[in-house]
Amino acid sequence: MTQAVLKTVQCISPAGLHSMAYKEWGDAHNPNVLVCVHGVTRVSDDFDVMARDLCDTYRVVCPDVVGRGRSGRLGNPQHYAIPQYVSDMVTLLARLDADSVDWFGTSMGGLIGMGLASLRDNPIRRLVLNDIGPSINGAALARIGEYIGQDVRFDTFDEAALYIRTISASFGPHTDEEWHKLASDVLRQDEEGKWKRHYDLRLAEPFKTMTPEAASIGEAMLWAAYDAIRCPTLLVRGAQSDLLLPEVAQAMTQRGPKAKLVELEGVGHAPTFMHAQQIQVAKDFLLG
């Protein structure tokens, strides 16, 4: 069975240096590179199934965004924001030494991809946005912001896994084995043996300090970034998503790169791309 190689690259923020871990699948010299970036509280392991499927065609690179998983933590939590993440990805792309890359971004990973694809001379050839757009439903954002910073710890893995399954119910139907993986990828034991989530709880700080004015400015900047994208773009929406509303998805098909929209029934925020029929949607676009 194909296995990923774990690597790290050193990045910089205004508060100093930090490491970013990433998983690399396939031939390290393959010039066809696919970068897959996860959602706000998830990790690179989310893409294990899809990466295995695609690593004969691509070198598949899946980073742990700083503050999550195996990556370092930032000195100043206010830097847990898209500009810092884009900067880190530029460093990663320099390490990969690829002239162009395809990009698959789930939720936050899609926002990072939008930010990068909006820049002049960017290397993104094709862009997949998984259940994310420039306008994010405020109620859904509040829901996510509420649980991000909660310091919940559990005595047993099973209790912790049930919690992850509960807060991730909108991912749609999965087998018990798949739910076990989705939980085990983001859970770790602390020094006292308690199970907790594998990210810096200070990720919640920028959510807590966000004002309506700042949110409005941020949305305008995201639309400006989206409108500047020139590469072919696929927008995947979970049909029951409360984060990416239907009218936003429709607007994204009419402006900027005029994304091709595919809706997945029976799924909310966000499709996990662990299942063959979802992976095929990405393959048809990326390799078509």
The run of helices and strands is: EEEHEHEHEHHHEEHHEHEH
Outline the low-pLDDT stretches: none
> In total, how many beta strands?
10
N/C terminus separation: 26 Å
Number of helices: 10
Task: Give a written overview of the molecule.
Helix 2 crosses helix 3 and helix 3 crosses helix 8. The chain is α/β, with parallel strands linked by helices and about 290 residues long. It is about 35% helix and about 20% strand. The strands form 2 sheets. It has an 8-stranded mixed sheet, sandwiched between helices. Strands 7-8 form a two-stranded antiparallel ribbon. Helix 3 links the parallel strand 5 and strand 6. The protein contains 10 helices and 10 strands. It is globular and about 50 Å long.
Q: What keywords describe this structure?
A:
288 residues, alpha/beta, eight-stranded mixed beta sheet, two-stranded antiparallel sheet, 20% strand
Q: How are the SSEs placed, and which strands pair?
A:
Blueprint: E1 5-13, E2 16-25, E3 33-37, H1 48-54, E4 59-63, H2 82-96, E5 101-106, H3 108-117, E6 124-130, H4 138-148, H5 157-167, H6 176-184, E7 187-189, E8 195-197, H7 205-208, H8 212-228, E9 233-238, H9 246-254, E10 260-264, H10 276-287
Parallel strand pairs: 3-4, 3-5, 5-6, 6-9, 9-10
Antiparallel strand pairs: 1-2, 2-4, 7-8
Briefly characterize the structure.
With 288 residues, the protein is α/β, with parallel strands linked by helices. It has helices spanning 48-54, 82-96, 108-117, 138-148, 157-167, 176-184, 205-208, 212-228, 246-254, 276-287, and strands spanning 5-13, 16-25, 33-37, 59-63, 101-106, 124-130, 187-189, 195-197, 233-238, 260-264. It contains 10 helices and 10 strands.
